[in-house]
Sequence to fold (241 residues):
Amino acid sequence: MIALRVQAADFDVGAELNRLRAGRADIGALVSFTGLVRDMADGEPLTAMTLEHYPGMVERQLGAICTEAAARWPLLAGTVIHRFGRLTPGDQIVLVAIAASHRLAAFEAAMFIMDWLKTRAPFWKLEERGDARAWVAARSSDDVAAARWQDPPAPIRR
Amino acid sequence: MRLLYFAWVRERIGHDAETIDPPAEVVTAGDLLDWLRRRGDGHAAAFAEPERIRIAIDQQFADLASPISGAREIALFPPVTGG
Fold:
């Protein structure tokens, strides 16, 4: 249902959205989120960010998150792409694109996938500032965001 | 069983993986952390604060009380920061 790619290579958001729409006219809503590397973190300029990952577990966890999203909302298709490796400010990190008949399911499913991915996908970010390197600390706000989805929403009727 | 380490856990220990054969009294993941702390300075530094360590057993999240018997792969790492 939701295609998943974990890769070092960059991705083309327009091409991915076109691929989801290709050859079908049943999609009424197509939502996408792109996560990007910012040039500042905690007030300090960033040189680069390296994403380490746990091959095998990343695919398993992202697959479970997407399966859960498709069970909770009436989705038609989707694509999740997460990069790893050394990225620089302005680079794309992650894409979550969701297609549904109507917009509420598409918006909510995309948000759900991002909130869960932030707390369950085994990636770790190492920030470079000049010669200094520091591992990013997980945020409690991400746990709060994920917790808001604990009670599945009422079934969508439209 | 195979142990995998990531991020600063890997850096403090000095390598990203090892194969271990823990004694029978190492039953839970918590027992495993206690046993690993005694293996060397790197391990002691990595696991000094167990509350900062996250555990996966065969690529599923687990906790300190989870039994490790039969596990093929146990990964120890900081809280994740993807996305």
Q: What stands out?
A: The mean pLDDT of chain A is 93.
